[in-house]
Amino acid sequence: MRTLGVDLAAATRKTAAAVIEWGNGTARLAHLALDVGDEEIVRLFGASDMTGIDCPVGWPDAFLPFLAGHLAFEPHPVLDYDGIEGRRLLAYRDTDRFVTAQTGLIPLSVSADRLAHPAMRCAVIQAKIARDHGPQARDGSGRLAEVYPAASLKSWGLLARGYKGRGGAETQRLAGVLDALQQAAPWLDLAGHADRMAGSDDMFDALIAALTARAVALGVTLRPDAAHARAARTEGWIHLPTGGLDGLPGTQP
User: Fold this and answer.
1) What are the residue ranges of helices labelled H in the chain?
2) Strands 2-7 and 50-54
3) pLDDT of residue 166
4) Measuring CA to CA, which residue among 45, 61, 11 is closest to residue 145?
5) Arithmetic mean of pLDDT, 104-115
6) I need a labelling partner for 206 at 20 to 30 A (CA). Which of 133, 149, 180, 185 fits?
7) What's this model's pTM, rounded to 2 decimal places?
8) Edge-to-edge strands, sheet with 188-189
9) Taking all residues of the chain, what is their mean pLDDT, rounded to a whole number?
10) What span, in angstroms and rounded, lies between the C-alpha atoms of 235 and 52?
11) Can you tell me the distance from the alpha carbon of 63 to that of 139, in angstroms, rounded to the nearest whole number?
């Protein structure tokens, strides 16, 4: 089995991809790259059994009628979202609120924060995947799942914050969390790429995305229940691991 993890940024130069090969109770980092373009992501998707992408795969359901009402000079669809609570429905998806309730982490808003630009690129990538390999369900029930590395790390009991950036403190924290990951997952062979990841939080997050993709494939992530299923199909669903790292290299799905 091969899982692909993508840390998607608006710029190709900040986009990283990692591929893990699984078998016989072990896992090996078979591919790690930075400066990854759309077509390479689509190619790697086609060669992988499950892909975890660190980027929203959809927008809040409330966002489209709000914009449509504004464009058409129709007040009622806009006034439905008056006030701070209404604006929260425009800014955050159902899955974002679920993640916050489960982990205490607050995902960036896909419609009102820096994540909007990468999400536009992600929508184009999804269209390219659909063109070449068929449409993928946004709730992660196909071969593409939305992941959130910080939430995965927290679920696995590892440091989830403070390792992103180029400062000395961030670099030190990144090296520390990478070391902790290796101790918690001795079955994972980084194939000589540890130093590269210790210097790039983008590549590290791609690795975490690939590990989370394995959890999705094994069925050990929180799935949307009846209360969340409808929104997950349109807005997307962030998959949170439910088991420990030690369960990932086990039985093939």
Assistant:
1) 38-46, 63-71, 75-79, 83-91, 94-103, 116-133, 149-155, 168-184, 194-198, 201-218, 229-235
2) parallel
3) 79
4) 45
5) 94
6) 133
7) 0.95
8) 144-146, 50-54, 2-7, 16-23, 26-34, 188-189
9) 96
10) 16
11) 18
